[in-house]
Design a protein that fits this description.
Length: about 140
């Protein structure tokens, strides 16, 4: 799917993903859960060149979480992305994109060893621990 549009809750930040698969994954790590009130569901558009911020770039706040960047809307607080500058790699909050979540294939759970016991997603999919070893 190409040229998928998304936006944050208040609409200030608009994003275009130029090219992506329908693959959605989650991360159970402490910082993702703390920032998102639970495991964040992400779509992986790959390199930065596939992501265009079409409105509200001045509303994006970046928190530097060690070597990666966590971006959120400074007006409404919506999580926007996780970005690893060293790898030129973006992961976007899948829930910003209505067309992504309509067609999503939920295929991977990361940092599964950090998941608390009180929730579990239904269905079977690949699970990796914090050292990216399959569980
Ligand atoms: Zn917003
Ligand atoms: Zn995480």
């Amino acid at each position: 799917m190409n040229n998928v549009k998304g936006h944050c809750v208040c609409g200030a930040v608009e994003i275009l993903i130029k090219e992506y698969g329908n693959f959605v994954y989650t991360c159970h790590c402490d910082n993702c859960r703390r920032m998102n009130a639970g495991p964040v569901l992400s779509v992986d558009p790959g390199p930065k060149e596939n992501v265009e911020f079409t409105a509200g770039t001045d509303k994006i706040t970046i928190y530097h979480d060690e070597e990666v960047e966590r971006g959120f809307c400074s007006v409404c607080g919506s999580t926007l992305f996780w970005h690893d500058p060293a790898q030129n790699h973006y992961c976007m909050n899948a829930e910003l994109f209505d067309d992504v979540i309509k067609n999503a294939e939920f295929g991977l759970e990361l940092f599964y060893d950090m998941k608390p016991d009180y929730y579990t997603f239904s269905g079977e999919r690949k699970k990796l621990d914090r050292s990216f070893k399959e569980i």
